[in-house]
User: Fold Shikimate dehydrogenase (NADP(+)) from Marine Group I thaumarchaeote SCGC AAA799-E16.
Amino acid sequence: MGKTFAVIGDPINHSLSPNIHSAAFRELNLDCSYIAYRIPKEELAEGIEGLKKIKIDGFNVTIPHKVEMMKYLDKIDESCSLIGAVNTVTNNDGILKGYNTDMDGFLEPLKKRNVDIKNSNVLLLGAGGAARAIVAGFAKEKAKKITIANRTIEKANNLVKFAQKISLDANAITIDQVEESAKNYDIIVNATSVGLQNEPSPISLEGINEKTVVYDIVYMPMHTDFLKRAKEKNAIVIFGYEMLLGQAVRAFEIWHGMEAPYNAMKKALLGGF
Assistant:
């Protein structure tokens, strides 16, 4: 009897998840299918009932349901409770358990490159959706300090409180205040949506060098202006698609209890660009 998985959200037609997971099933000859299922914001409760009726084996959760979905879970793992949002769910005879793969997905490409996160100085641009998971990741890996730069200081301040609560030294500034300070950081992460529309880099990358890690979580387009500028300085560049892939790999492992076929999933993901 085959297994069925889905991704829920709205809008959903741009989701790359069906491609990535279907490629993994093909690679390992698994009798599974993965569908994109649009559930509008106010119809989450009915949508979940529907998924339970068809005995869905697991599903990914994307915008706008990642926080709201928490209410409908029977169990949650620690990453989920820490971040306060869910993006991966298992269904075990109607018992829904939630996970958040954002943190592991974010850390995966850094680990693949053997980046020394411990004792690093981090600059995080943006304090929105993914930022909490990123802060949690840096806390887990014992970064020395994180500076959170956001357009409005309030959201950055909230994130600083969260960081301090989980034992990560943090401070907040506005993006304008970054100015020429990029060179003072070991790792710079763009978690704003700047770049989606090919806008210019949110900050100046003057003074960074080949030891600086520059990571953009925007994955469309792949080569944002932010990363192009980092490349000009020969920095270590990490693409947004790598985080997306890290999340998918982690979800696959949660659902199937086996190692994910990384290269097959990567090929499918990059084919979708």
